Amino acid sequence: MDLADAATVLARARRLVVFTGAGMSAESGVPTFRDALTGLWERCDPQALATPEAFHADPALVWGWYEWRRGAARRAEPNAGHRAVATMAARVPETVVITQNVDDLHERAGSAAPVHLHGSLFAPRCSACAQPAPLPDAGEEPGEGRRLAPPRCGRCEAPVRPGVVWFGEALPEQAFEAAVEAAYRCDVLLTVGTSGLVYPAAEIPQVAARRGGTVIQVNPEETPLDAVCAVNLRGSAARVLPALVRAAWGDAAPT
Ligand code: BJW
Ligand code: ZN
User: Fold this and answer.
1) How far is CA 52 from the centre of its chain?
2) Is the CB–ligand 1 distance for residue 118 below 6 Å?
3) Residues of each domain in the chain carrying CATH 3.40.50.1220
4) Intervals of CATH 3.30.1600.10 along the chain
5) Which residue among 87, 95, 116, 134 has its CA within the 20 to 30 Å range from the CA of 151?
6) Which ligand 1 atom sits closest to the C-alpha of 194?
7) Domain 1-29+78-119+170-255 has CATH 3.40.50.1220
8) Which atom of ligand 1 is nearest to the CA of 193?
9) In angstroms, what is the span from residue 231 Cα to ligand 1's centroid?
10) Does the N-terminal peptide bond of residue 242 adopt cis geometry, omega within 30 degrees of 0?
11) Model confidence pLDDT, tens digit, residues 118-133
């Protein structure tokens, strides 16, 4: 199967799932998770920072890293890949966008209500009582590599934490159920820009494949998901997704 065959399958789809990871936003200038610690953050290990233990041990280090990333995500613009996903949703009768990303670039590209499996940089909450907390003003953003003490909860005074899912934490129940259900029902699942290493999210394309859905992958590199994919389109999201839309629906399709 090549891009033309994948486009034919996509054009016939009635129920589509688009499952995205950090590579989806890479061409918007948002570093992928495993590349997120460049420059002054290089000394830290992302896998060690994205844990409740790291936050409890050093809240200012972890909060500073997330506030810096929130600033980067806020300044980023959706790329042609995000816009192509929104076009697919407009063309296929039932489309569910499921993202592991904590940015809001799918929403800003026009995909209404993507399922956020790993939470959001824009929904901080209390680390003790879970009360939603206001977003700090943009002016309070720390510079790269800078620690920043988290604000305190207005209800119980405990430190506020980022509204993301860290290693060892459960995924938001409703979001995970909606994702499994969509994967179970879909006829095509397009997986874009994810390493497929982090569970239980990585189960989503596997559920679709087990149920007989056609899984199409867009990623410049090999991943463990190659095994369940009918086709692996080796290339970047911002290049391959618009090409897929054009091949499926013609040049008139807005991207
Ligand atoms: C491009 C590109 C371009 C580049 N175009 N592509 C089963 C087996 C083994 C371990 C486990 C298991 N089940 C659970 C675990 C433990 C753990 C886990 O999976 N660990 C693995 C590392 C082995 N999972 C958990 O802890 C999860 N929780 C859990 O299981 O809870 C159990 C529980 C139940 C009940 C009560 C309590 C507990 C939680 C996982 C949460 C993950 N959170 C993070 C951080 C979010 C906040 C933040 O961003 O800081 O989510 S980790 C990180 O990984 C982030 C991402 O969403 C996620 C996935 O990464 P992603 O998106 O795939 O990015 P990368 O960087 O890995 O890959 C980028 C890809 O893009 C690459 O392939 C590139 O080639 C490609 N690319 N440019 C297209 N232009
Ligand atoms: Zn509280």
Assistant:
1) 20
2) yes
3) 1-29+78-119+170-255
4) 31-75+125-161
5) 116
6) 63
7) yes
8) 6
9) 22
10) no
11) 999 999 999 999 999 9
